[in-house]
Write a structure and sequence with these properties.
- The chain has 368 residues and is α/β, with parallel strands linked by helices.
- The chain has 2 domains: 2-182 and 349-367, Rossmann fold (3-Layer(aba) Sandwich), CATH 3.40.50.2000; 185-346, Rossmann fold.
- The chain contains 16 helices and 13 strands.
- The protein has helices at residues 20-30, 56-67, 71-77, 79-100, 130-134, 140-148, 163-170, 185-188, 210-213, 216-220, 254-261, 280-287, 298-301, 316-326, 329-346, 350-367, and strands at residues 2-6, 36-40, 50-52, 104-108, 123-127, 153-157, 175-176, 201-205, 229-233, 246-248, 267-270, 292-294, 311-312.
- Helix 12 (280-287) links the parallel strand 11 and strand 12.
- Helix 1 crosses helix 16 (350-367), helix 3 runs antiparallel to helix 4 (79-100) and helix 12 packs across helix 15.
- It starts with a strand and ends with a helix.
Length: 368
């Protein structure tokens, strides 16, 4: 099958945090014998047997877009500027679609489906949590419906909790089939020694925006310091004031977390209020046997069964209880083992994810 995979995010190098899951997705698809993969995405190291579907002008455009935080970030924060960029983005993707003539278009993010207008190419559209904010933009839902009705479509949210809203909005035009992303095998191989009781190290790995930080700084005041450390990683995408008790390390990349931080950490914390889909860093932490404390969001409850494979903290008191409970070495190891088992059984690795996508491609072609 000739598959065109499109994304507006892709890592420029092994140390780049942006679009890492797209690189993993592309690698797993490209190594299959039944897929011929072309990739339209920002420039970076392509997996073996993958054809670049971008021109040099596309590469220059996508590099600038990545440095500006991506199209979804611009649509949320700089709407006037984003409109012109969005139109150019759609034009460039449409041209790639016409040039490559794929059997199936695999589109990442709903808004990137708009270039399919006036074509009949079957499409699998990956839906992430940020798509739901974009659906609230004036005219976006109507525009997408006009595109979907022209072809056979599978909408593939990466978490089950998104399915109901997608069914209400597009279920008469498209099949909604949740397909979770995979997890790289090395995360399952992380070995964590018992957590030291005298100086716990908690990690927060996130883009720095007010919604992504959520209640972390306000609830964490007085709980963290030298004796109980909070290490924060991620790019600054909004001007967020970081308290002096937070140890901020700037952007990171998977290899650094995998080798330097996850093995020595007590756990991962996210108190996000963002439109989360299924946070990949949470899956990776759980696969590494790292307990996760998370805010009470549908995306987090989709991963965590409270007290069994993670901890939901809807209030400041609940956060305090979680920290105390999970700083006990035995409880920490028990919860981490349960989290790793859950990810292995319910999510699997990227090869498992690729198999789910390829089955969806086959179904699209058969029904088309």
């Amino acid at each position: 099958m000739r598959v065109l995979l499109t994304s507006t995010s892709y890592p420029a190098s092994a140390e780049d945090w942006q679009g890492r899951f797209i690189a993993n997705m592309a690698k797993a698809l490209a190594q299959r014998e039944d897929v011929s993969l072309a990739l339209w995405a920002p420039p970076g190291d392509l997996p073996e047997k993958t054809v670049a579907a971008t021109t040099q002008a596309d590469n220059n455009f996508l590099e600038r877009l990545s440095k500006q935080g991506g199209i979804a970030h611009l649509l949320r924060t700089r709407k006037a500027m984003a409109l012109g960029i969005a139109m150019e983005l759609l034009f460039r993707q449409r041209r790639a679609l016409r040039k490559n003539k794929p059997d199936v278009a695999h589109i990442n993010w709903l808004q990137n489906a708009l270039p399919l207008w006036a074509t009949t190419t079957p499409a699998l559209i990956t839906v992430l949590g940020t798509d739901f904010a974009l659906l609230r933009l004036l005219g976006m839902k109507l525009a997408l419906r006009s595109v979907l009705r022209q072809r056979r479509v599978i909408l593939a949210p990466n978490a089950e909790w998104m399915a109901n809203e997608l069914e209400r909005s597009f279920g008469d035009l498209a099949e909604v089939r949740p397909i979770p992303f995979g997890v790289d095998n090395p995360w399952f191989e992380v070995v964590r020694p018992p957590s030291p009781a005298n100086r716990p190290r908690w990690l927060a790995v996130t883009r720095l925006t007010r919604n992504k930080i959520g209640d972390l700084f306000s609830w964490g005041e007085g709980l963290f310091g030298e004796n109980r450390q909070l290490h924060l990683f991620g790019p600054m995408q909004e001007q967020v004031s970081i308290p002096d008790w937070v140890k901020y390390h700037g952007p990171t990349h998977p290899a650094e977390l995998l080798h330097d931080w996850f093995p020595r950490a007590t756990g991962l914390i996210t108190l996000s209020r963002h439109d989360e889909g299924r946070p990949q860093v949470m899956l990776e932490a759980m696969a590494a046997g790292l307990p996760v404390i998370a805010s009470d969001l549908p995306a987090h409850r989709n991963l965590i069964t409270h007290g069994q494979n993670g901890w939901i903290a809807p209030t400041p008191d609940a956060l305090v209880e979680a920290l105390i409970r999970l700083e006990d070495s035995g409880a920490n190891q028990c919860l981490g083992t349960s989290a790793r088992r859950w990810v292995k059984e319910r999510i699997g690795n990227w090869d498992d994810c690729a198999e789910r996508y390829v089955q969806a491609y086959r179904d699209l072609l058969e029904s088309a």
